[in-house]
Amino acid sequence: MSKSDPIGRLAGRLVRWRSAAVGLALLGGGLALLASACLRYTPAVEQPIAFDHHRHVSGKNGIACTSCHETVEKETFAGIPQPDTCMSCHRIIKRMTAAKLAAKPELAKLKDFAAAGWIPWNRVYGQPDYVFFSHRRHVVIGKVECATCHGDMTSLTSPPVRPAINQSMDWCMNCHQQRQASTDCISCHK
Amino acid sequence: MPRWGMVIDLDKCTGCRACMIACKQENNIAPSTQDQADRGRLISWMNVLTVVEGDYPNTRVRFLPMLCQQCDKPPCVRVCPVGATYKSTQQGIVGQIYPRCIGCRYCASACPYQVKYFNWFPPQWPDELKPPRNPDVAIRPKGVIEKCTFCVQRLQKARDQAAIEKRQVRSEGEYVPACVESCPAKAMYFGDLEDQTTEIAKITRSARAFRVMEELGTEPNVIYLKEGEWIAG
Amino acid sequence: MTSGGKNNQRGATGASSGNEHAVARRDFLKMVGLGTAALGAGSAVGLGAAAQALNVVPQEDFPEHGPESRIVSLCGLCPARCGTIVRKLGSDGLKRGEWAIKVEGNPLDPVNQGALCPVGQAALQLVYGPDRVRSPLKCVGERGAGNWQEISWDEAIATIKAKLADLRTGGAAHTVAALSSGTSELAGRLMARFLDVYGSPNFIFEADAAPSDGQDITQGINGRVAYDFENARYILSFGAPMFEAMSPVRQMRAIGEFRGGWEGRRGKLVQIESRMSATAAKADEWVPVNPGTEGVLALGIANALVKYNLYDAAFVAAHVAGFDSWPGNESGQPNGFRALLSQEYDAPKVAEITGVQVETITRLAHEFAISGPSLAVAGGRRFTGGTAAFYSVAVQALNALAGNIEKPGGVLTCPVPPLSWWPAVKSSAGVKPEAVAKPALDSVKSLARAVWESQPYKINALFLLGANPLFSSLDFPRETITKVPFVVSFASQLDETAAYADLVLPECSSLERWEIRTSSPGFAVSSVAVGSPVLAPRYESRPCAQVVLDLAHAFDGDVAGAFPWTEPSQALNELLTGLYESPHGEIFTERFQTEYLRPEIRAWDWPARKYGSRDDFVKRLLAHGGWVDPRYVYGDYRAGLKAPSGKFELPRLLATEASSPIFSGGDLSGYPFELCLFQPIALMGRASANLPYLQEIVGGPQVWPWDSFVEINPKTAASLGIENGDWVIVQSAAAKLKTRALLYAGAMPNVVNLPLGQGHTALGRWAKGRGVNPLELLANGAAPRVRVSKA
Questions:
Q1: Which candidate among C387, C492, C563, C758 keeps its CA 20 to 30 Å from the CA of C580?
Q2: Strands of C415-573, DSSP E
């Protein structure tokens, strides 16, 4: 360990670097886990059609949420519109010329999907498989507004890429306690 | 508040084990392998035990369907360090919350009925057998305990339906676990033990009724009916 | 590194002093910078992965789905064919598929009343089984070598048609046979019709698919004998697997009712069997009997009934033939049933043969006589001892002596529902007249004889409808199948017999096809159950019923003309007119309960319910699962006694057929144990061994999952030095098998018991190579005697 041992000193430095790097990696990993746990980080979700909620929901068009998310009052799942639903208003795109469609690329996409018969929407909001959640109970009995859990969709001009609200258990429990809905674990855990 | 309970008539039980298969299919219990079975790791929330007594020709063979007794004083709940299992005072069912379980297996040791099952292996299905799994029941990973829940997913659905119809879940018949539904010998009954007007409440008052290991003070909500006897003439 | 490195490491952990080894601040900041950069770069992956890891299971495992529905169907895993309701998840329009996720019993179906046995509960593992045959397969090269080519349905049907057309023009239409396991009635009926018009009389049921239990000989009724368990007070079962087979769901419930007691009187179940089966375990009394001697015991009890005048003499005098004498009897032979009993079946002799004490025989006879209504029950597959006919008839004789034919709690006749049967087909122009008159083959045994000896004629083509005789029959060794020039198997999984076929056609499960049930084994209630398809056929499978129609239409003229339908549902629909127009009966409603099987209720003149149009009627019928007419006319001997004499026949075969296990030839001294084979309920269906859930419950009453075993009496095992779980060799004159010993106090000391259903060499990944097939011990007519030793 004398000053004149260059190999030894290099080795020493490398070893220090290595152990420090290991320590840092562990720290970084731990922070990552913690962060993701807190932030419920989810990767960005892309949709096949850049659906503009604002245009459809606000103002003179003013379609209600339930017009397209048809099963929200009848089933546990809300449902997401398929070509039949869209085409009930957008019938005219079947007759639009290619030139006109070129100016409206999302409608062109819709036309293709309508021919195929289905739109491959990607899920944004979801709970783990051990959670039972019933839309109809919350909407019909609980009279919870869509925006309470899904955020204000009326202002969105393109589909959300991640949930607007972190739907953690804490967040659910908060509301359940306030509104005196069941907080029994087995009401929701399956 | 309902207290869900079950009665099993051991006189009628034939040991066919339909209840076991119905439970496995309903609750996404993965098919086992011979190796797992040999090691005693086969998971069966409902397990029909065969008891053989005596010597030939005075042999006596009896069947005892054993499942979580949904005790009122559950030993497993007392020992769980993280609250992954608890007694629901609203439904009378002992719940099992998978994300909370840390796999210490203290509850499995504590349960005198030995009905808490640990996932020693990650559950595995061939790809083709994955789609027919029940989406109403979570798939448990390796490292957590699971047990009979009286098909709580069916209760959740029944409560959902009842709430929409602005009523309570009916005390009998509306919500029935898979095992009770399937029993060919009609040896199983299920309902709200708090409601004294149900058929099941009447049966619990039978002279043949008993609970397994009652002396331990667990106060189980699964009641068995002793076998009967033929009397000549 | 050298020891210098070690020292350095120790140094790097701060044990030494000196700044040159400490981490400089600059270095530290560099490391943080690098680490954070790495963190950022990896974050997209790392955080996402971390988030996933916190979830219990990735969400992709559950496919998205739409609304659910419940579809009424029929279970097809055993001949009982209970009604089912299947919970189905609909496609959500995203075309991610529809899935069946649970099968339950149909509460409205009178046979099972909402219950389902373990085999039915495991059905989805067959529907979604990874080992399903996915497309029509053609054998390439030598049959049985396992080289298959996937072909189209068109090619398959054309191949079959060409072969059959050849045979027909050559005057050999009668040399075609079909063997059915009885699980698809619609396919079976259409195939039988096809053979009819084509010119063959050979539609054969495997024995356990249509047990007549001797009723064909005694009462001239061919088909399914019916027992009124619910109303009996005393059941004397001669080894019948009441809780394991026949129609297990209905029987379990019926015995539960019988036990529970009607009018406060609990019934007694006595199980006479060579091992303590689940039925024997639950019975009020188990009577151990030497294997194969149940028929002898039945006649011993009959002897006691006659000797002590405990039989219904009035009934016998009026309705039984053969009691006092047999026509054409030779001198020196006992003349008549009564004489036979007193000469050959006195109690001490029977006691010696059967191992049942004289006192027990006498007591059982008394109990049987006074505890009425009493029922003697035959059943189960027989591999040892006497002929099946002797056994069945001997047991039925007891019912005749008790006068319990066509009475509540007795032997009844399965009613035929008033369906509008398809118009009869006539023998056709394409078939030479002399061929039409050829004798029909009516059993696996006669089929095997025809194949092997060409008696009464050679077999040129064989269709297998879910049947696997190579595995499950003693009469059909592998060499037999190789002698049939053309074999077509309709199979969901490639079983042992299908492995030797020329063509394997993927059959649909019962959830993927239309199905009908016009009678259920042992159940004397007029009912018709209809199952709708729940799912589209998976892979390239096609219902056998559809294939028969396609094949018929490949012919022209009379063959095609007999099938004026393009789809099986049309053929099925036609049948329902008779139900719609019937003055009695109704669609399954909540009202059918076991109470409706009580005689006074069945005697009511149940009027028919009114329905709207025929279409309405059919729609309702499909939604509820079927139609039922609970009436039964007791005491109708014209309907129940259909032998030529118009009476219950006690035939001379009781004197002439082999009655007990007497095997000629061979020295049995080296084989001290008798062999008893039994069918665990888990392995009851043809497909069961390849369903993992069922492998988990193999056994009965003691379970030994995923394996075979041999039950040995504990004292016997001790004398052989065998402990529980030891590997043992079980050896007969024909074969040597290695399996695990299971010590069981319900095994008789001189008998060892092996379960049937394991030991497959095909069928699929879970069945193949698992356990042993005990039928090998009885190959080539070997006696059911074995020796057992530690391996």
A1: C563
A2: 461-465, 486-491, 503-506, 515-517, 526-531
Q: Domain extents for chain A? A: 1-39, 47-188
Render pLDDT for C96-145 as a digit per residue (tens, 0 to 9).
678 999 999 999 999 999 999 999 999 999 999 999 999 999 999 999 99
Tell me which chain C residues have a C-beta less than 8 angstroms from the C-beta of B138: 56-57
State phi, psi for C748 to the nearest 5 degrees.
-70, 150
Q: Would you say residue C104 lies in a domain?
A: yes
Bridge partner list, C71 = C86
Q: Is C439 near chain B, with CB under 8 Å?
A: no
**Cα→Cα distances B58→C132, C247, C285, Å:** 46, 29, 10
The answer for B219, left when phi > 0, alpha when psi is -120 to 50, beta otherwise, is left
Chain C residues inside the 8 Å CB shell of B41? none
By the 8 A CB rule, do C690 and C493 touch?
Answer: yes
Q: Are B29 and B22 in contact (CB under 8 A)?
A: no
Same domain, C561 and C430: yes
What is the DSSP code (8-state) at residue A11? Answer: H
C476 closest CA partner among C199, C667, C204, C147: C204
Query: Which residue from C740, C716, C737 is spatially nearest to C727, judged by alpha carbons?
Result: C740
Selected residues 79-138 of chain B with any CB under 8 Å from a CB in chain A:
86, 88-91, 93, 95, 97-99, 135-138
Asked if C310 and C401 sit in the same domain, the reply is yes
Per the listing, tokens 């024909």 go with: C734
Provide residues of C within 8 Å CB-CB of chain A: 1, 4-5, 7-9, 11-13, 16, 20-21, 23, 27-28, 31-32, 34-36, 38-39, 43-44, 46-48, 50-51, 53-57, 59, 61-62, 64, 67, 92-95
Of A1, A8, A32, the CB nearest to C46: A32
pLDDT (0 to 100) of residue C14: 34
| Contact status, residue C44 vs residue A36, Cβ threshold 8 Å | no
Same domain? For C429 and C542 the reply is yes
Distance from CA of B210 to the nearest CA of C (A): 18
Claim to verify: residue C302 and residue C446 sit in the same structural domain? no
Q: Cβ atoms within 10 A of the Cβ of C318, count?
A: 12
Tens digit of pLDDT for each residue in C575-631?
999 999 999 889 998 767 777 888 888 888 877 788 889 999 999 999 999 999 989
For residue C220, which amino acid is it?
Answer: G
